Every structure is written in C-alpha cells, then in structure tokens.
Amino acid sequence: MNPKLRRPLVAGNWKMHGSRGEAGRLVGGLLAGAAGAGAAEVVICPAFVHLADVGRQLAGSPIALGAQDVCAEEPGAHTGEVAAAMLADIGCRYVIVGHSERRALYGEDDALVARKFLAARRHGLVPVLCVGETLAERDGGATAAVVLRQLDAALAAAGAGAFEQAVVAYEPVWAIGTGRTATPEQAQEVHALIRGRIGEKDARISASLRVLYGGSVKAGNALELFSMPDVDGGLIGGASLQAGEFLAICRAAGG
Ligand code: PEP
User: Fold this and answer.
1) In this structure, are residues 213 and 182 in contact, taking their beta carbons and an 8 Å threshold?
2) Of the residues 9, 10, 13, which should be mutated to test ligand 1's pocket, given the most ligand atoms within 8 Å of the CB?
3) Is 123 a catalytic residue?
4) Which residues of 165-191 are buried (b: 16+ CB within 10 A; e: fewer)?
5) Which protein residue has the closest C-alpha to ligand 1 atom 3?
6) 8 lies in a domain?
7) What is the mean pLDDT of each run of 10 residues along the chain (255 residues)?
8) Pocket test for ligand 1, best of 217, 218, 240, 249 (most atoms within 8 A of CB)
9) 19 within a domain of the structure (yes/no)
C-alpha cells in the first residue's frame, strides 16, 4: 500500500436491493465484523426506505450512512423526491450524485447532477460525485473529455472549495455490474486526471480529495486497485451486498 495522506473510504451502494429484513441482517453482519474492517472509513448507502432503520442500527458504530440520490430542490411540492435536508435530518453523512444508472436510466445530465451536488453541500452532506465514460466513449478516445466534462459541471457550479467536503468516484460505465474491471493503470490514469483538474484550482484541496474507483470491485481485485497512488478506496455495488466480501474490500483499502 502506498503511503497516502488521505484516509481511504469504501462506500457500499446497495442500489434497489433488499427487503427490510435483508437490510437488517446485512447491517448485522457488517457490525459483527466491523472491528476487523481496518482503518478505512466505511459508508453504506441503502435504498431511501431503509435509511431510517439502518441509521438506527448503525448508531454508535464506525459505519456511516449515505443515500443513493437526492433532489436538487429544497423541500416543497416535489412529489416522490427526497430533499437533502431530510437526508441530513435522519443522519446521512454522504450522498451519491450522478451515478451512471441515474444518468442513463433517468436522464440526469451534468447540469442536474451539479445542482444535486450543490443541494447536498448546502445541507452539510458529502456528495460522492460519480463520473465515468461508456465503452463507446473509451473506444473513441473520449475518456478524458467525458470525465472532465462531468467533473467541470460540478466544479463550475460549486467551486473548488466545495470539494474540500466532497468525494469523486471514477466509475467506468463498462465496468459497473459487468464483472469487467478497469486495470489498476487505467484507473490510476483517470484518477490522476481528476486530481489534476482540481489541482489547477486549489492544490491543497486536490491533495486531500478522495477519489474512489467503482466498477466490479471484489475482494480478489481490490488490493491491486487500491494500491495505486491516486486511488483512495472504492464505491462498491454488487459486492457490498455480502458482508464478508464487503468487509474484505474494506480491509484491502485500510491496509
Ligand atoms: C456501482 O453501482 O456503483 C458499482 C460500482 O457497481 P458494481 O460494483 O456492482 O460494479
């Protein structure tokens, strides 16, 4: 493991999975093993309906609570949406914004994602801003342009200062849920690009910014990815639904 200034972070994105009972059992398994999870900061992001239950279970534990999405608007007449103020009120510390599934399946564009990023920051939540290219974009040589476009939208809206309390997750779309992982070198190249962009605005914030890798991370490939100098942990989908596998990934990040 490279010596890094930044505390590694591992976030589990449960997506739209799990009954109330399954969520409770998964948290129970994580709490039972959390003492051996290593030095990484650990966050779990259940579906909205499970946040309050899971938050109560996590109370007093080292595992933090996060949401998978947030409304860009303040509380009001927005049927079906959940405001950042509500997430903060029930104990969320983190919120994922701009996940590729939201971009692809629900039409979220860079401008909306930037507004969600701002809403999170207004209420003291730490946004986990997801960026990443599709396979066609990578094959077309557009990876850097796409990732920087997505990053720049939030940077322009919120300013570099907002990234002092933010996380960026590089998630190549072709690696999410596919079993196909970016090589450590591919991940490092994009992570360095992201850090460099923030560094053009503010060197101190760039040095402290945590940039996570996401895309088919498992216990078996986590260590080689997390050993890269600009990879500060992971955003984990499928493997976060198994306590033992997720805790092994946390140990790989925490050294
Ligand atoms: C994700 O959904 O953010 C993700 C990285 O999923 P998976 O780990 O299953 O590829």
Assistant:
1) yes
2) 13
3) no
4) ebbbbbbbbbbbeeeebbebebbbbbb
5) 237
6) no
7) 79 98 98 86 98 97 97 98 98 98 98 98 98 97 98 98 98 94 97 98 97 97 97 98 97 91
8) 217
9) no
Which residues contact ligand 1 via a Cβ below 6 A?
13, 171, 176-177, 214-217, 235-239
Q: Which of 99, 101, 133, 245 is catalytic?
A: 99
Domain of residue 74 covers 47-84+96-124
Number of separate domains in the chain: 2
Q: What is the pLDDT of residue 34?
A: 84
pLDDT at 130: 98
* 224 is known as an active-site residue: no
Residues 110 and 159 in one domain: no
- Note the pLDDT of residue 2: 43
Q: How many CB atoms neighbour CB 152 within 10 A?
A: 14
- In terms of DSSP H, where are the helices of 90-183? 100-105, 110-122, 135-139, 143-158
Query: In terms of domains, do 108 and 142 share one?
Result: no
Q: Exactly one of 108, 133, 171, 245 is catalytic; name it.
A: 171
Q: Residues 80, 145: one domain?
A: no
Whether 38 maps to a domain, the answer reads no
